[in-house]
Amino acid sequence: PILYSYFRSSCSWRVRIALALKGIAYDMVPVNLLNDGGQQFSAEFKAMNPMQQVPALKIDGITLSQSLAIIHYLEDTHPNPRLLPQDLKKKAQVRMIADHIASGIQPLQNLSVLKEIGKKKMEWAQRCIVSGFQALEQTLEHTAGRYCVGDEVSMADLCLVPQVFNAERFKVDMGPYPTITRINKALLELEAFQVSHPSRQPDTPAELRA
């Protein structure tokens, strides 16, 4: 497999966690979203992923984009360890939380949106994340065990950790979100979340390396 990734892309990080958890070896091709006017806009990359976004994963003779679609494919082809519970209610809760973050928070504070916002991008990002985290905290009060849904790592957790990283980058006060904070801390103790961390990627700038 070949993963096209950017060290600080939260969507790429989700996929890196999944690959690490499932023990899938891969080669990485860095796509710098800032250099050269954004390498994702190159003709070569656009031919591979018309949405001009990372991540993209070449695997088993196909190219997949969209992080959750990639993770679903990895789940289907490498079912252990499971990232979706077998219990149907818990599975629905995992998908709900993953979508809450992947559709309801992350795109609103994404690089392409912040470019359009201009000078007030920090305030905009904070407002979007706070609004999403207020709802997410309430949801997790009902679903969480050690992690987002019960005591097993799931697709929801793969979305949570990168989003908390974004929140911290944008200086969001995490005080009002004790459940999110507790789960994030527990997940960051796991090796798969550490090796996939933005501070430990081949394209991480020297000053940001762990």
Per CATH, the architecture of the largest domain is: Up-down Bundle
Indicate the radius of gyration in whole angstroms. Answer: 16 Å
The mean pLDDT is: 97
CATH class of the largest domain: Mainly Alpha
Strand count, sense and closure of the main sheet?
Answer: 4 strands, mixed
CATH structural fold name of the largest domain:
Glutathione S-transferase Yfyf (Class Pi), Chain A, domain 2
SSE pattern, N- to C-terminal: EHEHEEHHHHHHH
Broad shape: globular
By DSSP, the count of extended strands is 4
How far apart the termini lie comes to 26 Å
The total tally of domains equals 2
Task: List the uncertain runs.
Answer: none
Q: Work out the helix count.
A: 9
Briefly note the structural class of the backbone: alpha+beta
Outline the secondary-structure elements.
Elements lengths: L1 E4 L4 H12 L5 E4 L12 H6 L7 E4 L2 E4 L1 H11 L10 H17 L6 H7 L3 H23 L11 H15 L8 H10 L3 H5 L15
Parallel strand pairs: 1-2
Antiparallel strand pairs: 1-3, 3-4
